[in-house]
Each structure stands twice: as structure tokens, then as C-alpha cells.
Amino acid sequence: MERPQSSWLDDIKTKDRREGLNDIIFRSLADAYNLVTEEYGYNSENWKWGDAHYLTHKHTLSKVKIIDYLLSLSIGPFRSGGSSLTPNAGGYNFGKSFAQTSGASMRRVVDFSDLNNTQMILPTGQSGNVKSVHYKDQAELYHSGGYRKTVFDLEEIKADRYTRHLVLAP
After folding, report:
1. Sign of CA pseudo-dihedral 93, 99, 101, 106
2. 2 is in which domain, residue-wise?
3. Which pLDDT score, from 0 to 100, does residue 2 have?
4. What is the pLDDT, as a whole number, of residue 3?
5. Ranges under pLDDT 50 in the chain
């Protein structure tokens, strides 16, 4: 950066020219503009990061397209914000599609002064069983930035009308 004509900046594919820092920056901005306008048009109101950067939670068996279609194994797509360098992490492969390839496996906010005020969310659901109501029941809430309350107090858990008891007998 101190030497704007450094050989590190030169594009070796151009034979009769030696590019400098300003050339590379200008070309990068022009390439980015062309990429966006080809995909989303010239109206910048239509340029939404979430349209390019999206996430589909893919089930292991979703690689078999007919199984994925028949059983609705994959969850999404959802518009995604961020990148691998932001708090709401959503990494993608640079130089390829902007589709999200990595992110948080859960989000949790813990109030250590009141553990019963702990907030948590999973990207899809609690169950890995596609037939379970909990397979994807958290996905919409997760992708809209929401959380679910997590209770630790035994009496509060017992008092919850949705608490069920599983009794295992020999």
C-alpha cells in the first residue's frame, strides 16, 4: 500500500501494462457493480444482500433430489445477513456463490442473575426426525432473530402446562 506501483498489485494477465493500486481498486468496484446489476438490475432499491446470501439447511439425504422433494428434508431457503466476519455469522465461499455455507449451530443469551431468563434458539428444531413436529419448528423464529425462553427452575418446569413426563418401566 505504501508503494502504489508494487509488483504485488500487477495483473500478470495484461502484457503491455503494469497496474497499480488505483487500477485494481477501480476494476474491483467495476466488477462488483457489473455482478450486481447483471443479477439484480440497475435499480439499487433491488439490491438486497439476503437475496444473494441465503441459507438452506440441508438434510444428509437431501443430496438425493427425489427423496428431498418427496419428504421435504431441506429447510429453507432463508435470507441471511452477515458474513463469517460479523456477529450474526454466515460464512460463504469467496469467489463462488454467496450462498451461506457456515454459521451458528445455536444462539443463546444467558442472564446469570436469573437463569430462568435464558434465551436460546436452534437454526431448525430440536429433532432430527423429519416426521417430528420439532424437526423445523424453530427455523422461522431463528431466521427472524427470535429466541425461546429456557427454564432451569424445577418447580417452574413442573408448573408448565406443556411439560410431559416419560416413565420408563422394565
Report:
1. positive
2. 1-47
3. 64
4. 64
5. none
Do 4 and 20 contact (CB within 8 A), yes or no?
Answer: yes
What residues contact residue 12 under an 8 Å CB cut-off, 6+ apart? none
**Cell 413426563, residue?**
165
Contact call for residues 44 and 107 (beta carbons, < 8 A):
no
Indicate whether 14 belongs to any domain.
yes
* pLDDT score of 140: 96
Question: Do 93 and 116 reside in the same domain of the chain?
Answer: no
Tell me the per-residue pLDDT of 49-69, one tens digit each, with 9 for 90 and over.
Answer: 989 999 999 998 989 989 988
Q: For the chain, what is the largest distance between any 2 Cα atoms, rounded to a whole number of angstroms?
A: 84
Asked, for residue 169, whether it belongs to a domain, the answer is: no
DSSP the chain: --STT-TTT--TT-SS----HHHHHHHHHHHHHHHHHHHH-S-GGG--HHHHSEEEE--GGGGSHHHHHHHT-SEEEEE----TTSSS-EEE-TTS---EEEE-S-EEE--TT-GGGEEEE-SS-S---TTSTTSSTTHHHHHTT--EEE---HHHHHH-TT--------
| Cell numbers representing residue 19 in the block | 497496474
CA angle, residues 46, 52, 53, in degrees to nearest 5: 130
